[in-house]
Design goal:
Blueprint: E1 6-13, E2 22-29, E3 32-38, E4 43-44, E5 55-58, H1 61-65, E6 70-74, H2 80-83, H3 86-93, E7 97-99, H4 101-112, E8 122-124, E9 130-133, E10 136-143, E11 150-157, E12 160-164, H5 182-191, E13 195-199, H6 212-225, E14 230-233, H7 239-251, E15 255-259, H8 261-272, E16 283-284, E17 296-300, H9 310-315, E18 329-332, H10 341-353, E19 357-359, H11 374-384, E20 388-392, H12 396-408, E21 413-414, E22 421-426, E23 431-435, E24 440-444, E25 447-450, H13 454-465, E26 467-474, E27 485-489, H14 501-515, H15 518-521, H16 524-543, E28 548-555
Parallel strand pairs: 3-6, 6-7, 7-8, 12-13, 13-20, 14-17, 14-18, 15-16, 15-17, 18-19, 20-21, 26-28
Antiparallel strand pairs: 1-2, 1-22, 2-3, 4-5, 5-24, 9-10, 10-11, 11-12, 22-23, 24-25, 26-27
């Protein structure tokens, strides 16, 4: 029988994958639990496997069912993979949201950029503050990361304390915001921590992540050396990096021009919340052309190769206000997210072809990760001394490496779980005790689709092998009343022998209809199925692929 104060944890996204983070904590017994949700993020679609899908979100069926027991949603920070799904999914939950000022302000700006902005209230919590949500007391502990106001959450309950790290690193000189609060983390360890739910993103990398201050130094040197125009691209939300680039421009006597809507939005919020205090005013893209080449620096969106972002348009020479020429320089102050390598490579090649110098983290320290490497993970374990460690935020390899490291560091219990696993943290032996409904939702235009939805499944097939539409008009006796209509989409015009595939398919339709027994000709569904099979087989014979095929039989 479950104890009334059993504390449980379940990832509904973000475990076994990078992005789409959603964790839930439950307190109570098997029949009645209060739930606390942490983060509600997205991951991004991949045109190769999911054509037309922009965003992927966690399936929140379970939370919808438990809505009356959901005490709130708490945000660790304002990266898209931690808060990007709120606008689409919050209307299904309508629970209170809690975040610190920068995250709340950036979320408000994001809502305001929507066509019909939803009214989603967010309660602002001070950094280092504590709030009571049902049976949970949640404490916001500052940690360094690549966006202002990242927080680990100490979740205090009657069954013990859990440290949910969120995204973090150890950076004694983070440029913006507070360093990771080692003193408070050690205090928690002294008081006793039941479980550490920890970021595994860099668990395969030895050593320590360098500091933002070192990146700032490198960027300053590169900008000073540059002769022509300079463009820097980075994640829009990395305000410390924006500040470093602005300081580098100032030292080199250059004006800063901000290019890209996401960048403009973050700059505005960072100014409102004080993170760009003392930094010179930035100029709009419309003024870029007014400055001599050696007096301007553009900060651009598009570090991940996004096709409509500023840098992509500049590289393709179709940006209305910003151009680069031979001898100019582009600094990629970012890491390419796995899956985006082709898109980023295409932009870099486009720039190099135009004679533009491209600088990346392959040759210069122009980017550092916001996540802990192995020595930092060891430090966190030694400060917190958890009884149990569960690796999250990572693919299978990252989770496995983090788990091995934790065991070697002397953590008594280490448990690897997957999305949907409900884990008992305590009291008693930690274990996976149940499987909760979990999965993915795809944002397709303005519609949310399940992963098995017809649109998603068929889109992949369409992208791979095209589609054939056939319309056949027959008399009541099953004779052809007119020539069939055949329309091929995404299929080659001719086969290897130079024969027109359109005509081959037309002949196949006619011969199939005429060759059917009279009884099947009088059954429109049977005729349609026969034609569909014959057309797919014929195209496969001439092309080596089977397209989707839709046959409409009309009786006249």
């Amino acid at each position: 029988m479950a104890r009334p104060d059993e504390l449980t944890f379940a990832p509904l996204g973000g475990v076994g994958e990078i992005g789409m983070n959603l964790s839930i904590y439950g307190l109570g017994n098997r029949h009645q639990r209060s739930w606390l949700a942490v983060d509600l993020g997205v991951s991004f679609g991949d045109e190769e496997h999911l054509p037309g899908i922009d965003l992927i979100m966690p399936d929140i069926r379970f939370l919808e069912k438990e809505r009356k027991n959901l005490v709130g949603l708490v945000l660790t920070h304002a990266h898209e993979d931690h808060f990007g799904a709120i606008i689409d999914l919050w209307p299904k939950l309508k629970c209170p949201i809690y975040a610190t000022q920068f995250s709340a302000s950036l979320f408000e700006a994001k809502c305001n950029s929507e066509r019909n902005p939803p009214k989603i209230p967010v309660t602002v919590v001070p950094s280092g503050g504590r709030i009571d949500l049902g049976p949970f007391n949640v404490e916001f502990i500052p940690v360094a990361h690549s966006i202002p106001e990242s927080h680990a959450l100490a979740i205090h309950t009657s069954a013990g304390t859990v440290l949910h790290t969120g995204d973090w690193k150890i950076d004694p000189t983070p440029i913006i915001g507070k360093p990771t609060d080692e003193r408070r983390l050690r205090e928690l360890g002294d008081a006793g921590v039941l479980a550490l739910i920890g970021d595994s993103t860099n668990a395969v990398r030895e050593g320590r992540s360098p500091s933002e201050a070192e990146v700032a130094k490198t960027i300053t040197e590169l900008v000073k050396k540059a002769k022509g125009r300079v463009a820097v691209t980075t994640f829009a939300s990395n305000v410390a990096r924006l500040r470093a680039v602005a300081d580098a421009a100032k030292a080199a006597g250059r004006e800063v021009v901000v290019v890209g809507r996401a960048m403009e939005r973050v700059v505005q919020v960072a100014r409102e919340t004080g993170f760009l205090d003392g930094v010179q005013n930035f100029r709009g893209a419309d003024l870029y052309g007014h400055f001599p080449p050696d007096k301007v620096l553009a900060i651009c969106t598009g570090s991940q190769g996004e096709p409509r972002a500023a840098l992509s348009r500049i590289a393709n020479d179709d940006h209305p206000q910003v151009t680069l020429n031979k001898g100019d320089c582009v600094i990629f102050s970012s890491r390419t997210i796995p899956g985006n390598e082709k898109a980023v490579g295409a932009i870099i090649n486009g720039l190099v072809t135009q004679g533009i110098e491209v600088i990346t983290d392959r040759t210069d320290l122009v980017h550092v990760s916001g996540h802990p490497r192995r020595d930092e993970l060891r430090d966190m374990i030694s400060w917190v001394r958890p009884q149990l460690l569960i690796p999250v935020h990572g693919e299978a390899l990252h989770l496995s490496e983090h788990a091995k490291l934790a065991r070697a560091a002397g953590v008594p219990k280490v448990l690897i779980c997957r999305d949907g696993d409900l884990v008992r943290l305590g009291p008693g032996e930690p274990a996976i005790i149940e499987e909760l409904p979990s999965g993915r939702l795809y944002k397709d235009g303005s519609i949310l689709e399940e992963s098995k939805s017809r649109a998603v499944v068929e889109r992949k097939k369409l992208a791979f092998a095209g589609c054939v539409f056939v319309a056949v008009a027959v008399t009541e006796k099953g004779e052809l009343a007119d020539d069939p209509e055949v329309d091929l989409v995404g299929i080659p015009e001719k086969n290897t022998a130079g024969e027109i595939i359109d005509e081959i398919v037309f002949d196949t339709v006619v011969s199939t209809v005429e060759g059917l027994p009279r009884a099947r000709r009088r059954d429109p569904d049977a005729m349609a199925e026969s034609v569909r099979r014959a057309v797919r087989a014929t195209i496969n014979q001439h092309w080596g692929k089977k397209p989707l095929c839709y046959v409409h039989v009309l009786t006249v």
